[in-house]
Write a structure and sequence with these properties.
heterodimer, A: 2 domains, two-stranded antiparallel sheet, B: 310 residues, 13 helices
């Protein structure tokens, strides 16, 4: 099968999945016991007319199938509904918050992927030696630590006890934000030559990026180690060794390429997951990204925002899956597309 | 006597294999640390009333949905609020004057309960759906797997967050939300294992003897898929507790005043620069709990996986 045909087929297969996701989110938003219209109208003392207007606006009095139809219709036209907690379209909110999350995620992954791969290889090559135990312990701690707790501990240590880094948010209050080009502060401030903002935004990124990166590093290290261990036992590696190749060549030229395939998958999916908002990390570092937006929406019973966010998240995830699968076939020619 | 000897003789290879597995396990330092941590936590949970200095009272309340629920309440002593760790209060006190050590000890019970309930429920659903999908195949398989695709295309914490928020704040709802998040993983895992085992000669033999499907599934196939599922369950016991704590932290889990580790961190967050002990110790409890199960799960996988063991 040609690559182009494969991509088209996969895209068609995405339709039922995304439909399912919308049905799921729609169901979730309709099991809320609270009277949402009343909440948005201002609670107990709300004006009945306002409530009626909001109910009509949200189609709450129509039968469920009709409501679902309206919802889908809006969705197809790129309308994710109105965020009642922010009083603007959900799409606008997401557009504003996405770059902050993207900047944080990219930096976290730039930390996690190379370190994770290198330590994973070392751990596998020196299996059951002390360095393997140490790196494994670091990796397992990374996936065992509550990320919000790690974030708080880092804040205590580096923003309070030894105040060398800022506590939270994206920029110092005394710094002007760079002119909006992409919304990525590092990029924007570099392009516009705003070095005060550049310095401040890098400082603000360190703690949250480290927090996110540490958790991801553990996962990447573990998967690299176990796939490496499996590969070095395979026949072609034995052959390579029997030919008298140097151990270094065997590991880095022959084993690594194949061992990295599972690492690639996992990294892609972690990246996509974080792109949708590192919910807990952003909440603690008061990072104006997708995750904090979602948590605020949840706390305000703003379900159109929660659902909009979930749908976007699902789109990011399935796209990432597709990209990973395509890369897979490039890296490993034995994997034939579409089988 | 003769009976035991005969049994030993008949199962000689199996006993040898088990002994080998056990010795491998005993020689893995990290697995033993994991096992030690888990035993320690179970003991703490069992003996909580003897270890704790303060005890919760349980009250029956009518919740907004008109159902009676039992809630845990700790007496308030404002005079003792936010005391640092001391001989009196090993881990200090919180903003209501509760002894944090006692709350952590009782919190172990809740965490074990959450972990077990979610993991076992998810496994049961996974075994049933996975067995149906894997064994019968066809449209049924396609249908079940597409549903798991839908659930797996949304990151777990976000899906759980959406469900828990819709259901309303309570620890039961967090458990339901986590079951909803976790069942697809088990369904996929078990289906994959069954697809692998289904083609084995011994299953074919059983089928050709006319053994009913249910018996083939439960007696011949499922027991052989046990190892990876067990490893997954061990690790998930920790992961579930980690996620439950995260949900409690953003205000979706237990009600204030419950001894739940994630909630305690969330309540203590306001005081992090005044009272570090308030967030530090509950977090440490979560780390040790999750670390224990992860270490054990990792060790078990190394030992049980025939590809990695020798």
């Amino acid at each position: 099968m040609k690559l182009r045909d494969y991509i088209i087929r996969r895209l068609i297969l995405l339709i039922p999945i995304l439909l399912g996701v919308t049905l799921l989110t729609f169901t979730v938003s309709h099991i809320i016991p609270a009277d949402v219209a009343r909440v948005f109208a201002g609670g107990e003392k709300a004006n009945p007319e306002t409530i009626a207007r909001i109910r009509a606006e949200m189609h709450l009095d129509d039968p469920l199938y009709k409501q679902y139809y309206y919802y889908l219709n809006d969705l197809i036209h790129g309308n994710l509904g109105k965020s009642y907690s922010e009083n603007r379209p959900v799409v606008d909110a997401i557009k504003q918050y996405f770059p902050a999350t993207a900047e944080l995620t990219v930096l976290a992954m730039l930390l996690a992927i190379p370190i994770g791969i290198i330590t994973g290889i070392i751990s596998a090559v020196r299996r059951n030696q002390w360095i393997d135990h140490v790196t494994r312990l670091i990796a397992i701690t990374g996936v065992s630590i509550p990320i919000f707790w790690l974030a708080l501990m880092l804040q205590i240590a580096f923003a309070y006890k030894y105040p060398i880094l800022p506590l939270d948010s994206r920029l110092g209050i005394d710094v002007m934000a760079p002119k909006h080009i992409t919304g990525l502060y590092i990029f924007d401030s570099l392009v516009t030559g705003n070095f005060a903002a550049l310095k401040s935004s890098i400082y603000h990124l360190i703690l949250p990026a480290f927090t996110l990166g540490y958790a991801s590093l553990g996962i990447i290290l573990r998967i690299t180690r176990s796939s490496m261990l499996e590969i070095v036992r395979s026949d072609y590696i034995r052959t390579a060794r029997a030919k008298g190749l140097k151990e270094r060549t065997v590991i880095y030229k022959h084993a690594l390429r194949n061992a990295l395939i599972p690492t690639l998958t996992v990294s892609g999916l972690i990246f996509a997951g974080l792109l949708g908002g590192a919910v807990l990390t952003e909440t603690i570092f008061n990072w104006p990204g997708m995750g904090r937006f979602a948590v605020n929406a949840v706390n305000n019973l703003d379900f159109s925002s929660v659902m909009g966010f979930t749908v976007i998240m699902a789109i990011i995830m399935v796209t990432a899956n597709l990209i990973v699968d395509i890369l897979y076939s490039v890296l490993d020619p034995r994997i034939r597309l579409g089988e | 006597m003769g009976f035991i000897d005969e049994w030993k003789k008949r199962n000689e290879s199996r006993i040898k294999e088990t002994k080998f597995t056990l010795s491998l396990f005993r020689h893995s330092l990290l697995s033993m640390i994991g096992l030690g941590l888990i035993i320690f936590i179970i003991l703490v949970a069992l003996f909580a009333p003897y270890l704790a200095k303060e005890h919760p009272t349980y009250v029956r309340l009518l919740n907004p949905e008109g159902k009676y629920v039992t809630e845990e309440r700790w007496d308030i002593h404002f005079g003792d609020k936010l005391l640092p760790p001391s001989r009196e209060h090993y881990f200090g006190t919180d903003d209501y004057g509760h002894d944090i050590f006692s709350m952590i000890v009782y919190g172990a019970r809740l965490s074990i309960k959450i972990g077990l309930l979610v993991v076992i429920s998810a496994t049961i659903i996974g075994v049933i759906l996975g067995a149906i999908a894997g064994y019968f195949g066809g449209y049924l398989d396609e249908f079940i797997m597409r549903i798991t695709d839908i659930f797996l295309s949304i990151p777990g914490l976000i899906l759980a967050m959406a469900f828990a928020a819709a259901l309303g704040r309570s620890i039961e709802h967090v458990m339901y939300a986590l079951i909803i998040v976790w069942w697809p993983t088990y369904t996929r895992l078990i289906r994959g294992q069954i697809l692998k085992t289904r083609e084995e000669t011994y299953v074919e033999a059983a089928r050709s003897l006319g053994t009913p499907d249910s018996k083939i599934i439960f007696k011949h196939i499922l027991p052989n898929t046990f190892a990876p599922v067990f490893v997954q369950m061990t690790m998930d016991l920790g992961n579930v507790v980690l996620n439950a704590a995260g949900l409690s932290f953003i205000g979706l889990g237990a009600n204030p005043g419950t001894a739940e580790w994630g909630l305690m961190i969330s309540m203590g967050r306001v005081y992090i620069f005044q009272a570090w002990w308030y967030v530090f110790f509950p977090g440490l409890a979560i780390v040790l709990f999750v670390l224990g199960f992860n270490l054990l799960g990792d060790g078990l996988r190394d030992v049980l996986d025939p590809k990695l063991r020798r």
